[in-house]
Design goal:
single chain, 390 residues, alpha/beta, Four Helix Bundle (Hemerythrin (Met), subunit A), Dihydrofolate Reductase, subunit A, eight-stranded mixed sheet, two-stranded antiparallel sheet, 11 helices, 14 strands, 19% strand
Length: 390
């Protein structure tokens, strides 16, 4: 069984936007904790969970990804049961703790975000069915999340209660647990999605990630700059040939806005080179898709906006006839596609520079096995690598 297979197995004060006083270690000393970040994280994490579960079809949500693994529906039921248990605990009458109410948060984070460590779920929150209706799974999960959020805003999070699993724990720590527990199962669901969606046949289109990278593995430096990338005529011609094999360009918001502000101007400039004009025409006429939750509309010619059910939309694109799909830059989008197992090939230009920090190309927690297809050494010192995902 592969590592990825293993990772599909299972596991009254309104405090938002205010600072609360924390009583520490039986003394009268207090410290201020801003709970806005906690509630923002809770909103973001649970929204991502719902979106990910929704991306499975009625059949796929019940598909077993590997031997002894949970289905996506079973993961959702487990999270729902866990949420319901936390809801009951939040309703209990508690007492003020003799320690800082957030003293256990870091340990919870360390435990539940260690994806290499397998945790045993208590029997009373294990999934109980083999086949589920997708709508019912999502409805039950959404109800539990809504109740958690409402209670979180209306109970005294400073109170400590006795919990059957954690023992003495504060309600504040329980909400942090919900965030970390949910993140853990988002990671699990992404692995399940990858296993159930990447049984790629020869008829499906290939998705290629094209990226410039420093020798030490970064795609932008610590200031967000890319002026270290070598783009001479030789490297540019290679990129144009690579783009000619694709008929759809994929972007995250930041890269899209950068491309949209530049390439149309190349077509209008008298100083544009032949190579620049060639690529500008391709960019203008090719199908473009931008993935963003913040953009409301896109205006560049032949551009489509996708802001939800992203994995499912990519599978649909792969199933359509046509040339390759290609991600240009867009490191954050690339990270998500990596985790979902949607990338089939990597075209990486390694630049002869060490940045010492920045955003890494590979920012995932799961192993990806690659097969080297080709290498190309450019006169500038750039090394082009072509990998296929095994």
């Amino acid at each position: 069984m592969s590592r990825k297979d293993e990772e599909t197995r299972g596991c009254s004060l309104n405090l938002k936007n205010v600072l609360v006083k924390m009583i520490t270690s039986g003394s009268m000393m207090t410290e201020n904790i801003n709970t806005e970040e906690l509630f923002t994280s809770l909103d973001k994490t649970t929204s991502e969970l719902i979106e990910l579960i929704s991306s499975f079809t009625e059949t796929q949500i019940n598909e077993i990804p590997a031997v002894a693994s949970w289905t996506a529906a079973q993961v959702a039921e487990h999270v729902t049961k866990s949420n319901n248990g936390i809801i009951n605990s939040l309703k209990k009458e508690g007492k003020l703790p003799g320690r800082a109410p957030d003293a256990g948060v870091e340990q919870l984070k360390k435990t539940f975000l260690d994806f290499d460590k397998k945790l045993q779920s208590p029997e009373f929150i294990l999934p109980t069915q083999d086949i589920y209706q997708k709508k019912m799974v999502i409805d039950n999960l959404e109800i539990s999340i809504a109740q958690l959020k409402e209670l979180g805003h209306n109970v005294n999070l400073l109170e400590m209660i006795s919990h059957p699993i954690f023992g003495e724990i504060t309600k504040l720590e329980l909400l942090h647990f919900v965030v970390y527990h949910t993140r853990r199962h988002i990671h699990q669901l992404k692995n399940i999605f990858g296993l159930t969606h990447t049984k790629v046949t020869s008829k499906m289109r290939t998705l290629v990630a094209f990226m410039h990278m420093s020798l030490d593995g970064f795609v932008v430096n610590s200031r967000g700059e890319m002026d270290w990338i070598t783009i001479d005529d030789e490297v540019f011609k290679d990129a144009i040939m690579l783009a000619d094999d694709a008929d759809t360009a994929l972007f995250g918001r930041v890269t899209y806005q950068m491309m949209e502000s530049y390439w149309p101007t190349v077509l209008l400039s008298d100083s544009s080179t032949e190579l620049e004009l060639q690529h500008a025409k391709w960019m203008e006429n090719t199908n473009k898709i931008v993935f963003s939750e913040t953009l409301e509309k896109v205006e560049w010619k032949n551009t489509r906006l996708i802001n939800k059910n992203i994995p499912q939309e990519i599978i649909r694109l792969k199933e359509r006839p046509g040339k390759k799909l290609m991600i240009f830059g867009s490191p954050r989008l690339t990270h998500s596609f990596m985790q979902w197992g949607l990338i089939d090939e990597y075209r990486i230009n390694i630049n002869p520079v060490v940045l010492g920090g920045g955003m890494p190309l590979f920012n995932i927690h799961s192993r990806i096995n690659l097969k080297l297809i080709a290498t190309k050494i450019f006169r500038s010192g750039v090394t082009g690598l072509h990998y296929k995902v095994n």
